[in-house]
Structures are given as C-alpha cells and as structure tokens.
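FAQ

Q: What does a record look like?
A: Structure on top, sequence underneath. For example:
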C-alpha cells in the first residue's frame, strides 16, 4: 500500500504493470495442474517407490474463479479459458465485459462467486479494502473440495483462518506464493501440510526482470519529457 495518499494531487506514480501477467499465468496454470493431480502425494509416493493408480477430472471440466481482474488477473483468465476451463471473475467495476470471463461478479458479490469454483485465484492489489478479503466467512463459502491459490499479497488472506480450514479439511488445499510474514516463519504449519504448496514469492520473478522493468521506466521518462501521457498511472486514492 502506498503511503502517499495525503499528497495525491502533487505526486505522479507509475508502475511496471504488464510485465508480470504472462509469467504469473504460467505459475497459476502449473499450480492448477499440481493441485488437481495432487503432485505432492505423487512425489511422496515416488520417494517411497509406491506405484498407485489414480484418476482425476480434467481441468477443462473445472471452474476457476479469478478475484481481481487487472492485467495479471486477465492474463490468468485468458490462459485458463484457453485450457477449456469455465472462468468466473470478480472486480470492482463490472460494467465492461472482460475477455476470457464467462461471468462477472462485483466486489460485493464475492460470497456468491466462491461456492461455484473448484479453484479460486487471488490477484487483487493490497489496499485497505482488500486486507483480510478472504477470512473465516469467505472460506466457509468455498466448497470443501476447492483449492485456493494466492499470488496477490499475504495480507489479503487471514492466514490463521486459512490454516484452520486446511487442518480441518474444510478446504482441499492451497498453493501460496505470498504470506502475512515473509520469509514464511520456520514454525508455520503451512510448511508441513500435505495439501499445501509453498513457494517463496517468485511467481512474477522473470529472469530478465530488471531489463524489462527498465524498458517500461525508460519509456515513461521519455514520455514525461515530451509531455505525453504516461503509461501505468496509479490512482493513489485507490492504491493501484
């Protein structure tokens, strides 16, 4: 969250929006596959030299809910749609259709979206409005066989409530790239849960990250010097 809201009239802020979407969509699609096939169990069985057959439902028969439809959320939605999934989306303004989304829900309709999803991906920015967005009530709306993927920010999920739900079997599992505290504390139960995949906030870290970011920044500097409109302007009142 930006600490400059009291100076919104005299500060211009831009970001590098657009450079993360494709890579994070790769991460999410990999996560969907791993969760659907229970790769943690498969790898455990490999280590134990166990040969156990199983069957799964294809991703094309599943429903994905994308909460937050900025450039990253839209990239995820498009990729999931190309895999044949039914894709639902939640965003603040639903007046304009979004490519790849079969049905749009307003931000106040999150509890209507959650029960419909096999997978829920969080892709919202961290703002005062999204802190604690997924808490005990929202988790209770999700199906017991559903999975949560968080590539947003750790503060978006009430981590203690998520842990309780996972331990109690009220959710099938989760793939988490962000956490309330980072690095994730060594004593966090999430490390050892068989139904959780933990990654160290890497979903958007592409090999040439600095070069890509510099290209966007350099273009905006050039546009600023020429008096042209800047790209990727942030609305400081909204925080994104």
């Amino acid at each position: 969250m930006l600490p400059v809201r009291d100076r919104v009239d005299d500060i211009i802020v831009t970001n590098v929006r657009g450079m993360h979407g494709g890579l994070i969509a790769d991460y999410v699609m990999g996560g969907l596959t791993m969760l659907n096939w229970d790769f943690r169990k498969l790898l455990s069985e490999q280590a134990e030299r166990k040969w156990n057959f199983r069957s799964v439902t294809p991703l094309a028969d599943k429903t994905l809910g994308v909460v937050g439809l900025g450039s990253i959320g839209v990239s995820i939605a498009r990729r999931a749609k190309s895999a044949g999934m039914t894709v639902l989306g939640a965003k603040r303004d639903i007046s304009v259709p979004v490519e790849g989304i079969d049905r749009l829900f307003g931000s106040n309709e999150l509890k209507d979206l959650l029960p419909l999803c096999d997978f829920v991906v969080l892709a919202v920015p961290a703002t005062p409005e999204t802190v604690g967005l997924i808490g005990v009530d929202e988790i209770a709306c999700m199906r017991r066989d559903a999975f949560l993927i968080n590539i947003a920010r750790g503060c978006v999920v009430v981590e203690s409530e998520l842990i309780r739900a996972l331990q109690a079997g009220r959710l099938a599992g989760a793939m988490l790239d962000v956490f309330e505290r980072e690095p994730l504390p060594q004593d966090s139960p999430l490390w050892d849960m068989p139904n959780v995949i933990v990654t160290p906030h890497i979903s958007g870290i592409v090999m040439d990250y600095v070069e890509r970011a510099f290209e966007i920044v350099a273009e905006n500097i050039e546009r600023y010097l020429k008096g042209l409109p800047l790209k990727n302007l942030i609305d400081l009142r909204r925080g994104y």
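Q: Is there anything notable about this one?
A: The longest strand covers residues 86-91.
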